[in-house]
Amino acid sequence: MSRDGLWCASCDGALPCLDAAHCPSCALPTPGGEICGQCLKHPPLFARTTAVFGYSFPLDKLVQAMKYGEQLALAPAFAEKLARRIDPANLPDCVIPMPLHPNKLRERGFNQSQLLAAKIAREFDLELLPHACRRVRDTSPQSALPWKERKKNVHGAFCCDADLTGKRVALVDDVLTTGASLNALAETVQKRGAVEISAWVVARTLPRSENR
Predict the structure, then answer these.
(1) Axis crossing angle, helix 59-68 with helix 74-85, rounded to the nearest 10
(2) Fewest CB atoms less than 10 Å from the CB: which of 20, 96, 125, 182?
């Protein structure tokens, strides 16, 4: 880390940018950029994913420093990187950050997804809806659970208080792993009328072979 809280130039060059062809729905690598088999079999409720990095070293350490080390200056820097990947010709009507349960928010003191979403919303002059959705169940951390348990863990975890009828919505989170949390949130906003849902994330967890 540099003295201003951001990564140095050598770290920037070493960041695992997600430049290879990948599935437009979930951002997993595919040979020609086609939809992956998993998304064909079980399509996520978010139509497409924009991701900047693979979630591996040293990016993973930077994300952890933001979330758990209170290195909040990293959030706008991540948001700027993400904004460069977003297609300005295909913007949503509003941006919704992944909500934290009030217990987790009190414990952490901030919602890193809201910090990311706020910066991106300003960048594109989009409506930010930071309180449209709430996390109503204090679920176990997804990272602590086996992949197969994650969907069950977040089932019914969210509610949406906003009328999103006819709205195109972008959901913002820091890391996409199985997509269970984002899909559960997408289901919630879809029930409130959202017609097109995108996922904007800083990093995508890749298969181990891709992270080597």
Answers:
(1) 130
(2) 125
3-state secondary structure of 22: strand
Q: How many domains does the chain have?
A: 1
| Cβ-based burial of 73 (10 A; exposed 0-12, middle 13-18, buried ≥19) | middle
Instruction: Note the pTM of the prediction, 2 decimals.
Output: 0.90
Tens of pLDDT, residue by residue over 31-77, are: 999 999 999 999 999 999 999 999 999 999 999 999 999 999 999 99
| CATH number, residue 183 | 3.40.50
Q: Which amino acid is residue 27, in one-letter code?
A: A
Q: Are strands 48-54 and 127-128 parallel, antiparallel or unpaired?
A: unpaired
- Inside any domain, residue 4: no
